[in-house]
Write a structure and sequence with these properties.
Blueprint (H helix, E strand, L loop, with lengths): L1 H27 L3 H27 L6 H22 L19 H12 L3 H17 L3 H33 L10 H21 L8 H7 L5 H11 L3 H31 L9 H8 L3 H5 L3 H16 L1 H23 L9 H8 L13 H5 L5 H34 L5 H25 L17 H18 L1 H12 L10 H26 L1 H8 L3
Length: 537
């Protein structure tokens, strides 16, 4: 028994590595398009990695090279830590529950999965950046020897960190509700892009790279960035400090491997409670909620509650709302912080949330047939569309107002607040009107699995529905836009532009009602076509 276990422990690593290569190879065999996409992504990633490597080498001798290298490795480690949470289905070998039925022990499995984790584009990209980082800070033979160890340790820490995070959360990530965590990726990407842009502008101002030094002084003691700090310390002759930083990185690696092994043991020996029925919570869920008591009675309130529950529970709907909420706030606020913003950027809030009115029936997917069974007349269709529009307004109106007031406060341009609010309300009304009509005329399916938002073959419908509708909304809002422009170019415009608030709000409400009235008959007539389109995915 012991000899067989020893043989198994020795042989499992190459088997798992070959398994990873087989998964990759078989995935590429599925279609030529997938192979082309993979090859293209590999070329682009390697090209970017090569440029980063050359850039880091060019920093060699710069006074702030250490700060850049340490900060870069810290960001790399953060990326490795959060990617399994946002993209749990990106790597099949990230899910150790697939191996629980095999007679494997956790420690050999940890070694095997760690080796398999080094196969892929991500580890190669990370390796290039780590090599460039140590080259930019290493000076002297002792530093280069330390750099070799630092690169290996830092790479293993990044990989082990990703695996430990994935193993600790795999039960959550593999469940239906756990997949909702991926919706945060839109928010993180949106905020991260603005933070990078904001940071780049700050670095380009007075002080430049010197502003990174205080942050780097802290991060150089946090693994795996401490491994890069060790190379710099040895280069400066501080061998004791360098050894301490390197030991800290090695200790972190050992701790992550131990944590990973512990989670693997728990996964392979503990029962999965995801199928345990929770009768009492389910019974409570079926009861009347506080939300339902606040909404109107009848079909309107029912439709509103259903729509709001989709926003909270459906992963795809939640992802769209989170991204829209984030961008609607980030664009005006970050531009105001940079001193280049305009108060009219606050209209992004209404515009981004107004997009959610498009393809209303596609958000229901195949479940739309239940709704279709309750629509037997134009009146039913109108009440259905009205309830969906009101549900959107419950969130959009206060949010757009809040963003506009916040942007106005940051810019100190209070006299323009009424006209911007009026313009936002008019734009929102126009988008609700065109969104209702577009939902009936150009419906398309949203796949529930994966990260695609349009079913194959319906991309053209999606483009026509959203972008065509947005252009039509701009045309519908043209009267209020023209009044806003005229009020700003005339000499006495400031005396009456406050009237744009009631005018914009009234115009938006009027155009919304007209849009719903026009969309209702088309919706009632095209129910079979709409049901076929939204059920395609």
């Amino acid at each position: 028994m012991s000899s067989n276990a020893g043989v198994s422990a020795v042989s499992i690593t190459p088997v798992v590595v070959r398994l990873k290569l087989s998964l990759l190879r078989n995935g590429l065999r599925q279609s030529a398009g997938r192979r082309a996409a993979y090859v293209t992504s590999v070329v682009l990633v390697l090209l970017f990695a090569a440029l980063q490597l050359l850039g880091l080498i060019a920093l060699r001798g710069n006074a702030h090279a250490t700060a850049v290298a340490v900060l870069l490795v810290a960001v790399l480690a953060l990326g490795w830590a959060v990617m399994p949470l946002f993209f749990p289905s990106g790597d099949e070998t990230l899910d150790p529950t697939r191996l629980v039925m095999l007679p494997l022990r956790p420690r050999p499995l940890v070694r095997a999965l760690l080796a398999a984790s080094l196969v892929g584009i991500g580890p190669v990209f990370t390796l290039c950046l780590l090599i460039g980082s140590v080259i930019s800070v290493a000076h002297g033979a002792a530093a280069y020897v330390t750099a070799v160890v630092a690169v290996v340790v830092a790479l293993l820490v990044c990989v082990a960190l990703a695996r430990a995070v994935a193993a600790a959360n795999i039960r959550l990530l593999s469940s239906r509700k756990g997949r909702d965590l991926a919706v945060l990726s839109g928010l993180v990407i949106a905020i991260g892009a603005q933070l990078v842009n904001f940071g780049a502008q700050r670095l380009g101002s007075a002080g430049g790279l010197s502003k990174l030094d205080p942050v780097a002084d802290v991060l150089r003691w946090l693994p795996p960035a401490s491994a890069i700090g060790a190379v710099d310390s040895v280069s400066e002759g501080s061998y004791g400090v360098g050894i301490a930083q390197l030991v800290l990185a090695v200790a972190t690696l050992v701790g992550l491997l131990a944590l990973w092994s512990r989670h693997l043991t728990r996964l392979m020996t503990s029962p999965d409670g995801s199928t345990v029925q929770a009768a009492e919570p389910a019974a409570r869920e079926r009861g009347s909620s506080g939300l339902g008591r606040l909404l109107p009675s009848g079909r309107t309130g029912t439709v509103m509650e259903r729509s709001l529950r989709y926003v909270w529970r459906d992963p795809k709907t939640k992802a769209a709302w989170v991204t829209s909420l984030a961008i609607g706030l980030i664009v005006p606020v970050f531009n105001a912080l940079q001193g280049t913003g305009s108060i009219y950027f606050a209209c992004f809030a209404a515009g981004m949330l107004g997009i959610q009115m498009y393809n209303q029936f596609g958000q229901d997917t195949s479940a739309f047939w239940i709704v279709a069974m309750t629509i037997s007349s134009t009146r039913d269709a109108y009440v259905e569309l009205r309830g969906r529009a009101l549900a959107l307004l419950v969130i959009t109106l206060p949010y757009a107002t809040l963003v506009t007031v916040l942007t106005t406060a940051m810019l100190g341009d209070w006299p323009k607040l009424p006209e911007v609010l009026g313009l936002s309300f008019a734009l929102l009304g126009a988008m609700l009107a065109t969104g209702a009509w577009s939902s009936a005329r150009f419906p398309y399916s949203i796949p529930q699995e994966g990260y695609k938002n349009v079913a194959p073959g319906q991309t053209g419908l999606a483009w026509i529905s959203i972008f065509g509708g947005m252009v039509s909304a701009a045309l519908l809002a043209a009267p209020v836009i023209a009044l806003t422009i005229w009020g700003n170019v005339t000499a006495d415009g400031d005396e009456w532009t406050w009237l744009l608030l009631p005018l914009g709000a009234g115009y938006g409400a009027l155009i919304t009602v007209l849009g719903l009235r026009l969309a209702a008959p088309r919706t009632a007539r095209r129910l079979p076509e709409i049901l076929a389109a939204v059920s395609k995915g």
